[in-house]
């Protein structure tokens, strides 16, 4: 069973206490954007076999959204962090660089 | 390769000579330098695409490239439910085409795929579901798909082990497709593979595609663990790995890969000769020819490529089914496994041209693409051969997302197997 640490509560919980929310760090496009950008934002997903940045909600806890970096090929969790950011924390990136030298970046 | 047909006579002949005369069902050739069409993925959909390319369109210079063993992906991991009682017209068309091809697939392929149209029920266990399924019955009648609404007592006649009165979710009736059922999943892959090999096509196993070569926006070939292969056209038919292949070709898909699990009980005497889906509680069950109760539920919610699902799904689904089928409460569950399914937002598949010329994708069948293998292969072969979708594939293009023209089956079936 997948366990993640909620960065707000600091508790490590099983996935049944959490609700997954898909790819993180999507750049939003809204009114006035081109059709291509809007379509990409709504539908196109990276869905990588490897390092994935994703949204989770501590649904049966504090109820807040947070972000996680996880490997979809091994289920290894690299870390979690609060959602009030536009990019992953530098330490987390450094940690992933070390563990997965060829991972190709988070964008 | 000339094919020695399977028949009663062949069985008798081999019985008289210690079964020494059976030949390999398909060849395992080394890849050639170039093919007219390369298909990535030897699951049911890739193999059926190859088969109808040869049979219907006369294109036989074809390779099907598989990183593992053929049929080892979702095609060999599913619970084999076949039905065509979908809500939307384009879905009904392609799933019913598939179901009707299944009716005589064994004769067509000269391979027993054990199609068993034993009947399929979708239980209505809430007022809302009851209305939903009645609506589906009306839609199906207009689409030419034979389904009907049956009452609780008819359900009980068909499924004596079902608990009609609840306690929590009484059975209010069911959507019944009499010609729905199951087939032997491996046999479907093996039958198509054998027929493709007999047409002179190359099925190359243990060969992973690692790159897609393009020039001026047009496909040139693929890189593989067995070397570089040129191709005129490329069909990507890899289910859970679709995003990985699309990335190699330089585009993204509206797909997320997730684990879906199934499990079987210890074998017991025949007790249920139909397929029953209980979508409200998110579980479904049938009995295999060996006597095992075959059970499945919903997908995990997060991206995953490990072919292992989360344990709590097994527990939740089994617990829910015990209320509807009390006799399974003492059954031991024997085996559990997972597959990686390719989920789209509208829970409908993608059969489409792509941003790269002569590259085509067939994916997004998600939790329910075993039933569609023959119809999907038929439609995909037409798309690849002509370069444009025919009537069965036309609505399933990638452009539907940009145009907001979804084929929404997510509300139509809570559990879409
Ligand atoms: C547990 C479970 C239960 C299901 N139950 C049902 C059901 O009851 N009814 C139903 O209709 N559907 C069901 N499905 C869905 C169904 O199994 C799939 O939709 C269908 O089998 C997909 O077939 P496919 O040929 O597209 O994919 P697959 O059979 O997965 O084949 C894709 C192949 O591509 C290969 N591949 C991937 N990447 C590469 C690469 N780089 N190079 C070479 N080869 C590659 C893989 O190894 C694989 O063999 C279920 C699925 C699961 C997992
Ligand atoms: Zn929390």
UniProtKB/TrEMBL annotation, chain A:
Any Pfam family hit: SoxD
Gene3D superfamilies: Folate-binding superfamily (3.30.2270.10)
Name this polypeptide is given: Sarcosine oxidase subunit delta
Database matches in InterPro entries: SoxD, SoxD_sf
Source organism per UniProt: Rhodobacter flavimaris
């Amino acid at each position: 069973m997948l366990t993640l640490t909620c960065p707000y509560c600091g508790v490590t919980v099983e996935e049944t206490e959490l609700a997954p929310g898909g790819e993180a760090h999507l750049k939003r496009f809204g009114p006035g954007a081109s059709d291509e950008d809007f379509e990409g934002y709504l539908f196109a997903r990276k869905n990588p076999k490897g390092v994935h940045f994703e949204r989770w909600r501590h649904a049966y806890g504090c109820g807040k959204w947070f972000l996680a970096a996880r490997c979809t090929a091994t289920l290894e969790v690299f870390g979690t962090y609060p959602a009030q950011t536009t990019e992953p924390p530098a330490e987390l990136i450094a940690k992933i660089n070390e563990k997965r030298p060829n991972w190709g970046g988070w964008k | 390769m000339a094919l020695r047909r399977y028949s009663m006579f062949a069985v008798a002949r081999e019985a008289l000579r210690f079964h020494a005369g059976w030949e390999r069902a398909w060849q395992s050739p080394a890849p050639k330098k170039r093919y007219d069409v390369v298909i990535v993925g030897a699951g049911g959909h890739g193999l059926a695409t190859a088969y109808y390319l040869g049979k219907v369109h006369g294109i036989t210079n074809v390779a099907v490239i598989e990183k593992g063993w053929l049929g080892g992906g979702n095609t060999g991991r599913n619970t084999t439910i076949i039905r065509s009682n979908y809500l939307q017209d384009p879905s009904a068309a392609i799933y019913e085409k598939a179901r009707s091809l299944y009716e005589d697939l064994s004769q067509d392929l000269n391979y027993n795929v054990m199609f068993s149209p034993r009947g399929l029920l979708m239980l209505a266990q809430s007022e809302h579901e009851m209305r939903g399924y009645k609506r589906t019955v009306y839609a199906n009648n207009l689409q030419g798909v034979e389904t009907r609404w049956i009452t609780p007592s008819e359900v009980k006649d068909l499924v004596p082990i079902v608990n009609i009165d609840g306690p929590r979710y009484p059975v209010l009736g069911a959507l019944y497709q009499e010609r729905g059922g199951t087939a032997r999943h491996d046999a479907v892959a093996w039958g198509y593979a054998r027929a493709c090999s007999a047409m002179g096509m190359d099925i190359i196993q243990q060969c992973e595609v690692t790159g897609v070569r393009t020039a001026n926006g047009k496909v040139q070939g693929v890189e593989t663990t067995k070397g570089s292969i040129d191709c005129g056209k490329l069909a990507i038919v890899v289910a859970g790995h679709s995003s990985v292949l699309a990335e190699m070709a330089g585009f993204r898909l509206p797909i997320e890969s997730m684990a879906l699990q199934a499990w079987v009980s210890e074998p017991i005497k025949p007790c249920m000769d139909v397929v029953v889906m209980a979508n409200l509680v998110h579980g479904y069950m049938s009995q295999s020819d060996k006597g095992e109760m075959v059970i499945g539920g919903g997908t995990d919610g997060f991206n995953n490529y490990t072919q292992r699902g989360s344990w709590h799904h097994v527990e939740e689904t089994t617990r829910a089914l015990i209320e509807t089928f009390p006799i399974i409460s003492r059954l031991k569950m024997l085996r559990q496994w997972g597959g990686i399914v390719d989920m789209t937002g509208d829970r409908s598949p993608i059969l489409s041209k792509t941003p790269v010329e002569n590259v085509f994708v067939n994916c997004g069948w998600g939790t329910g693409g075993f039933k569609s293998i023959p119809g999907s292969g038929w439609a995909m072969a037409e798309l690849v051969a002509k370069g444009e979708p025919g009537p069965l594939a036309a609505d399933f293009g990638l452009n539907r997302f940009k145009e907001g023209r979804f084929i929404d089956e997510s509300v139509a079936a809570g559990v879409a197997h």
